[in-house]
Structures are given as structure tokens and as C-alpha cells.
What does this fold into?
Amino acid sequence: MAGKVIPFQKPPLPPLEVRQAKADRYGELDRRRKLADFDEAEREGLKKEMESWYKDSSGNLPERERGHAWEIQMSARRKERTPKNKWKLFNRLRKTLGIRGLIGLITIPLGEVDKVIPESERAEYFHEEFSGWRLFTSIPLHPIDPPQEQKAA
It folds into this structure.
């Protein structure tokens, strides 16, 4: 005879004060990240500009730019491979791996699938559940003042 099954209980939420403190800390960190995004956009622009100076070089050697305070070292370009003939490569892999092994290697872009298979038919091909990531949005509840410098007593 089997024992009585006890249903799984969700752990309780942390106390309200803890949740409020975590929400406030997350919001502040998110605010600071957004401020840093402006610097990141400028940094990326400078990076692209400096890369463009060497666009016609072979790329197999590192490059560097030296300022008064910083030296920027750019590595050699990384090697990238693209198939010359996808059909020929497909047949070679099928010969070696078999059709089931080859299918195991394939990653299907779901955005492309959505373009050709109507939503009404997708349940036949996909299992779908709410298990992915969540989008967090921070909303300030009060105007944010810059931190005040502490004055020496």
C-alpha cells in the first residue's frame, strides 16, 4: 500500500520590508545601468571608428593605438568559416552521421518557421510553456536626486 502523497508547497515570500528593499536596490542599479548606456554607445562608436582605420589590412596581425593616457590593443581578426557549398556539406555529413545524426546537429531558427507555418498548425510541431525569461521594467516612484556629497564635520 502506497503512502499518502503530500502536495508540494511553495516557499513563502520574503517579508514585505525585504521585498521593498530588493525592489529599490534593483531599480537604482537599473537607473545607473541606463546612465552607463550613453557611455557604452560612445565607446562602441569609437571602437567602430578605430576598427575602420584598419579595414583594408590583412587582419592577421594585432594593431594598437596609443593616446596620452591609454594604449588600445586590437587583436588580430578572428577566423570565421562559412560553408562554400551547403548541399555538398550536407551530403558529406549525412554520409558520415546518417540522417538522424545530421538532424541532431541542425538548429532551426524559429523566427523563420513562424514565417511559413501558421500559428494554428504550430502545436503539432512544438511544445510551448511559460518557462522563459521575464522582462523587468524599473519605474521611479519619486524624482531621483543625485547623491549628496557628505560634508566633513
